Amino acid sequence: MKRSRVGDAVSFARRASSSTSSVVSRAAAVELHLSRDDADTARAISRAQIEAALALLIDDQCTLPFVARYRKERTQGLDELQLRCVEKAARRYEALEAKRASALDALQKLEIRDADVLRAVTSASTLEAIEDVMQKFRTKATSRADRARSLKCDALAEALIRDGPGGIESLARPYVNGDAIKTVEDALKFAKDVLAERAANETAARAAARSAIWSYGALACALTADGKAAASGKVEDKTMKKIADAVRDYYEFSAPMRRIKPHQTLAIMRAENAKVLRVKIDFDLKGATSAAMKALLGGDQNRRLGGGRYGVVRDAVEDGIKRLLAPSIEREAKGKLKAEAMERAIGDFGANLRALLLQAPLKPASCVLGVDPAYRTGCKLAVVDERGQLLDTGVVRLPQIESKAKADEGAKTLSALIKRWNVRAIAIGDGVASRETETFIADVVKSIGGDVGWRVVSEAGASVYSASELAAKELPNIDVSLRGAVSIARRLQDPMAELVKIDPAAIGVGLYQHDVKEKDLANALTATVESAVAQVGANLNTSSQSLLSRIPGLGPSLAGKIVRHRDECGSFAERSALKNVPGVGAKTFEQIIGFLRVPDAKDVLEHTSVHPESYGIARRLLKTLDIAESSVVDLTADEDVGTTSMDVLRRLKHKLSEIKDDVTALKSYAAQLRCHHLTLRDIVSDLCAPGEDVRGADAGSRANTLRTHALTIDALTPGDAITGVVRNVVPFGIFVDIGVGRDALLHVTAMQKQPSSSFAGAKPFDPHSAYAVGQTVQVIIHDVDTSRHRISLRL
Hints:
With 795 residues, the protein is an alpha+beta fold. It is built from 34 helices and 17 strands. It has a five-stranded mixed beta sheet, with helices on both faces. The longest helix has 49 residues, at 309-357.
């Protein structure tokens, strides 16, 4: 009967929770989570837009890039970033509901039917609120309070918080048994242990402590004994020495919790895990103590208990708050700091990866010599043609570690390859011996003369690719050691086409990669790669399986089927022919086809990102723009069928350009064509530049600029103006390759601030808002520390 009543109570709580969810719609709940994650984004998005986004992403199972590009009429123009924010808020909402369901299940198993407890779980709006309610029911290792309860001292604890006759000694004396409890003091000690645990588990006390730690708490660091030894070089552990050197700025660090930066958190936590730093969060416990006293004394913390009870209860509460609650809240706060820092680190990694993938291909296309630097085994060389096909290979030894005769021989080998294949660009890997290799290349190029330049490119993941099945298939007769040079050359030619072959996590364009959760990083980077590939699009007839597999909604298996069909049946004449590939159903075709191009198709619309479902709109627009010329579009009786030529688009380009950014004109034409003006705007943009590679849109600062001379760190002088290439963007600045074998740092404090960042309360300047990986920048040397190999820059 008892179980039935418990079940009824929990069932009622579930119905209450469900009822609440029905009144507060899914969209409203997601909107609440969105406002907590990003208030600015939440203000810019209406609930109707959230409802539409959730319906498309969750109910209709559409890919996010597809919704961002082809369903703007449904979402009222939400861009990809906004959609990802909605998606993230939806995941938080789902996690909260899953936690709520789990908590209700646990309460039912424990036969808890307290209405206040059930109400607190069903009405909780955060994970922490549910955790606080469930804290007192959580199974733990045997505690001091458990021991006290086993000795029946919990009854004494209850007596201590109630007024009544007699003093504490008379209350405690009956519990003295001459065994485990030998004295009155022992009995009171056990009772205080029970009260201490109750105080630490009080929801109000936990909330007060949490508020205090985030409002007024300060995080402080100090070197441990091992850390001091590592800092002075007195330990053998190289990793500990490296970490100790990296966190020099945190040896005596203290800062308010609300001002700790994400990169500071990860550096500090790494050092704490390595036992280099001791990390403590100091915060005021008075509010938590008062809240616990109020809860234990029936809502009145100032109620004075007689007979010495008040002092005993107060001591017990202070002990529980300090000994049990404070460490728990401190661990929670550290966990939250780390979670937020990891989220930012993953975001930075994704932004840098996206910028790297969207670097413009080498223009004009030419033969490229790839160089994989090495000391002992020599530098591996590989020459590829304009399409990335391997032409020649070789190995040369660096002159810095060889005799003059062998050095001269290496220079001749390199010179011969450059001349034979008319190489105009050289890609040098940034690994070990990169600096010496660049000097060697510079000397050889200078002796040859002519228009030959080079660029240092990231070789991250090249070794992984070299040993992969894909590399063996692409380069079957080439030694594994030479495949890396091929990959390096192709990365300069077309970064995206080559980098999609590599696990995104292996491309090192972030900080603290090994400190973040591997699964979260992998999911985020996969989404980033798919988004970048979708933005650029892929040639249905020439793209590799690796590139096709990154099209949102396509995947490796279907990409393999497309490539096999292409090999067996020949090139696709038009997009619709993709339907003949097994596994490409109506839904899949709808999701992927807009991101695939057929540049050789007769209809120019097949060269663009215009979705086939909008071909009719595009053709009717062109006819409307020049209705007098019957040759504009070859239409049949059905206006959705026909062929659009490149000549037509060239002839109407000026008219298309006029309306592209004219909202009034777009809305007028959209009304005539019975479509949404946002959909029409995208169509017009595509018709203005059919087949254009978006990666070349900002070629000024993002072009593959080649270097023609080499520098050394010793040659740098403060005040020197120099051109560099951004290699990494992080919260505290950007790392710039200035050609000396060591990236220089342009700190965020040295960057030009936006005017809005000058007033109090403004958001910190985000380097991602002004810089991207691969961007060419003009900087000035600020300081050179040759002993630590550090270079700082200014603008």
